[in-house]
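Fig. S4 source data, part A: sequence.
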Amino acid sequence: MQFKHYILFCAFFALMACNTDDDSPENGDNISEFQGEIDVLKSFGGSAQDDFLSVVESQDLGIVAFGFTQSNDGDITDKTTTDSDYWLVKFDRNLNLIWQKTFGGSSDDRGQSLISTTDGGFAVTGFTRSNDGDISTNYGFQDFWVVKLDANGSIEWETSIGFAGNDRGYDIIQTQDGGYFVTGFLDVTASNGEGNDDFNSEGRPMQSFSAKHGVGEFWGIKLDAQGEMQWRRYFGGTNNDRSRAVIQTADGGFLQTGHSESDDFDITNPKGSYDVWVVKTSAEGDLLWEKNFGGSSIEIAYDLVPTSDGNFILVGDTRSSDQDISNPKGNADVWVIKFDGEGNMIWEKSFGGSDFDSAQSIEILNNGEFLITGNSKSIDNDLNQNYGQNDIWNFIISTNGELQWQLNIGGDGLDFGNDSVQLQDGSIIVVGSSESDTGDIEMNKGDKDAVIFKLK
């Protein structure tokens, strides 16, 4: 996820063009050949539900995972209640615990996305229902909650964004100007059309735009480096539209993706029940174009990245077997789409088996290929084994979308992969959740554990 910012993506490829024979500490660990085998796997949590949803490599070459915990026992040491709290955990490169922090209030607060920031710290987002503890304000039932943290996980600033209804942040990036962009969905019915506005230097609304009402809308929010709102824009129709991921493009604008159930207002070419929907805005938040991808059933996008040739790849799942889907394999497939800067599809590929398979994240690897992380219930086609109800599934595709390697990990319960990152030494860290205590998952500490493992 740390490569989703376009500048970091470009810097990464510039780094790869430099001399890779330098084994000095400032260039990280020696790069080893990826073998695709489990090196270390650990479960963390307590007696309730715990989940890792995002992971990054820190500037000091540690590993930091983020999600939420409901536990107040087991591995969770700084929490007394059983409501959900943001949960940030730092490990060394062998997945030994260095420190952990929980953040939140007396109600449910669930972390979703984590990034490492240019100052060596972190920024996170998700949602909060609290109005106490670490949360300074609550505007209604559920708000976006954005928190800026230093390198030790201490809060530098936090801000809640929302209205009276169910508003939820799903992704955050650091922008080219040092600020932040957060995406998710707005309950625009509960906001009575509010949420489309610009702000002055004092953080007060100075301009509002024409409202379009619906159930839920893509909601993009631009913050400055101190967390003050600069502008907010929502897009969608009269039904349920939710943004899951965002990247900044070379022109300073933004690409948001997720799904759309609507067939009106901003949606001009609906395909079916739920479509993958991509929205391109300018740096100021003006809608430049939008695009639907899908068939007659349900498609959802969860993540996207830029490619080295100036295009983009998104991942999610599809349940259709018509229109844009050319090679369906089962009940639900991982769906990967490459498209250009105008939203034109270049290619699409389905991966999986005859059961239910989905992708949650895509990561750019050191060699330019792509690692996709998600889950699978299948045991055929692209998969050759299944450990139980649902396995964590990781696979690598080439730049042309050809399957290069795959591995499923799990036990007899429900296991889900949520995010991954390749470290400077070439190894891969994957995070998710597990309810298993067999197979690859040797221990279950409660209802649902956060799981983290290293592939070498």
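Fig. S4 source data, part B ends here. The domain at 39-455 is CATH 2.130.10.10 (Methylamine Dehydrogenase; Chain H).
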